[in-house]
Design brief:
By secondary structure, the chain is α/β, with parallel strands linked by helices. It folds into 2 domains: 2-301, Rossmann fold (3-Layer(aba) Sandwich), CATH 3.40.50; 304-382 and 393-436, no CATH class. 38% of the residues lie in helices and 20% in strands. The protein has 15 helices and 16 strands. It has an 11-stranded mixed β-sheet with strand order 1-15-12-11-10-7-3-4-5-6-2, with helices on both faces. Helix 4 (134-147) runs parallel beside helix 5 (201-214) and helix 9 (304-325) packs antiparallel against helix 11 (364-381). The longest helix has 22 residues, at 304-325. The protein is elongated, with a radius of gyration of 22 Å. The protein starts with a strand and ends with a helix. 51% of the residues are buried.
């Protein structure tokens, strides 16, 4: 595991020269590629798949940032042993900068690019695509695997994000059936303003599982969320059957996003790079690129069950202690997103350091043991963690857990109950008791 603290050019679409400044309707269908199609393409070591959701009709800033991310990808571009492809959706807004970057600036739909050195070649124009529909992501993965097959895949979702909670579309917090996934077609991340939709954590998980099933049971190697608030124990547990590694931040992501050129450079230098090592490059290079007060971690989904089990152990000891001391309280924690999400390892650290009222309970030793078990489980599943500023000072663990106010929990309870983390574990029952007084 790596934990660290860190001590623009642009071009136009298609053929151009380097200048100097700088979550499905198809889930029921098989994704297996015909042998003839697979054999027609050389299987490379890695394919980087960018899913860029720039359809923000309020501002052009996200789309502008994504264009600069494409610039970074094209500084080196695809190589003999790896490919870089991107599906990018535009908003309906236009300004002078965007007009200067596109060969068809009035086109506001999605495109698929094969990113090469100093150019991003258009492979397909798709028209308006609801990138918040899981079918769109599934179709993107099918296209990438068919046209640019590889032994290993890194999927980067570049978009707005809201953490484990999702506000729009089927299965979201606003739906009468939170957690549902439409089969067939009828935020977590990937907010698409034109279609007023986003990919929920449920939809993302189903898409990743479908891709794994089509890939001989092999999961995506890495799913990286270039989006805010995406690093939670609930998300890690939800996607555990669809990816080996989840890269995400428990905090916000600056507009300029990941250090994309560093990612491609690492693969180019070592096409046989492991998922753990590549994850370390993604996290470290992001912190070196970003402004202060940022955090990005990489987590092996194989350890998600151990983290859930450790959370359950802590819940049991909390409830036992509560018979004597009441609800657990702690000092020196770290919260995100209006105190809906709390750094999980900081909760364990507060117990270990004696900053909780559980120290006065007769089962204090058992509470301490549960906290140590939780801290160890988080450490074991963490492949890499880099942070800066106050997050470095606090030594955050990089994964949050949902621990909202009473009113917020009442609002989002049905959605939270639909997560696999809640179905398998006890944290939702702890929240029922802690926030709502339910036994």
């Amino acid at each position: 595991m790596m934990i660290g603290v860190p001590t623009n050019r642009h071009l136009t679409e298609a053929i151009c020269v380097r200048s100097t400044p700088r979550l499905l309707a198809l889930l029921a269908l098989s994704l297996m590629l015909p042998a003839s199609a697979a054999s027609a393409q050389a299987v490379k070591d890695w394919t980087v798949i960018g899913y860029f959701v720039g359809d923000d009709n309020k501002t052009t800033s996200l789309e502008e940032s994504q264009l600069r991310n494409l610039d970074e990808l094209s500084e080196r571009g695809s190589g003999a042993a790896y490919d870089v492809v991107v599906q990018a959706d535009r908003s309906n807004k236009i300004n002078d900068y965007l007009r200067s970057r596109y060969s068809d600036p009035d086109y506001s739909g999605a495109k698929r690019y094969h990113v090469q050195r100093d150019r991003w070649s258009v492979e397909a124009k798709l028209g308006e695509v609801n990138m918040g529909d899981p079918a769109a992501l599934l179709d993107c993965l099918k296209w990438a695997a068919k046209t640019h097959p590889a032994r290993h895949y890194l999927l980067v979702i570049n978009s707005h994000g809201s953490g484990m909670l999702s506000w729009r579309g089927p299965g979201s917090t606003s739906d009468s059936q939170p957690g549902r996934v439409n089969l067939p077609i009828s935020s977590y991340v990937a907010y698409d303003d034109t279609d007023n939709d986003c990919l929920t954590i449920f939809e993302l998980a189903r898409v990743l599982e479908a891709f794994a099933a089509s890939n001989g049971g092999k999961k995506l190697d890495i799913v990286a969320m270039d989006a805010c608030y995406a690093a939670s124990v609930e998300a890690l547990f939800q996607v555990r059957d669809g990816t080996d590694v989840l890269i995400a931040s428990e905090s916000t992501i600056p507009g300029n996003g990941f250090a994309y050129s560093a990612i491609v450079d690492a693969i180019a230098a070592n096409p046989g790079i492991s998922a753990d090592d590549l994850s370390g490059v993604v996290t470290k290079s992001f912190i070196h690129k970003a402004d202060n007060n940022n955090v990005l971690g990489a987590y092996r989904t194989a350890g998600a069950e151990d983290v859930r089990s450790a959370c359950d152990s802590l819940v049991r000891e909390f409830r036992t202690a509560a018979k004597e001391i009441g609800k657990p309280t702690a000092q020196g924690l770290t919260a995100f997103a209006d105190e809906k999400y709390w750094d999980l390892e900081r909760i364990a650290d507060a117990i270990i350091a004696g900053r909780t009222n559980t120290a006065g309970a007769s089962n204090a030793a058992q509470v301490l043991g549960a906290a140590q078990k939780l801290k160890g489980a988080i450490k074991s599943c963490r492949a890499s963690l880099w942070y800066s500023g106050t997050y470095a000072d606090q030594k955050v663990g990089g994964l949050t857990i949902f621990w909202p106010s009473k009113d917020d929990y009442r609002t989002y309870r049905n959605f939270y109950k639909a997560t696999t983390f809640s179905a398998a574990g006890l944290w939702d029952e702890f929240l029922d008791w802690y926030a709502l007084g339910m036994e």
